[in-house]
Design brief:
Length: about 60
């Protein structure tokens, strides 16, 4: 009886680990897909104050 319980617990742990790895891979795949255009990213960086107006204008010209 004890051996069956150990096997069941080990199987459950293995299954849970497998499910976590599959979910993690799907999450990573979704995270790497970026639908924003470079100009949208640039606008957001400027709006957040990461870059100043001169750098924004310069990079905007480079992208055009």
């Amino acid at each position: 009886m004890g051996l069956i319980l150990i096997i069941l617990v080990a199987g459950l742990v293995a299954w849970l680990l497998t499910q976590g790895q599959i979910a993690g891979k799907c999450h990573l795949a979704k995270a790497t897909v970026n639908t924003e255009t470079p100009i949208e990213i640039l606008r957001k960086r400027y709006a957040r104050g990461e870059i100043d107006r001169d750098e924004y204008e310069s990079r905007k010209r480079d992208l055009s």
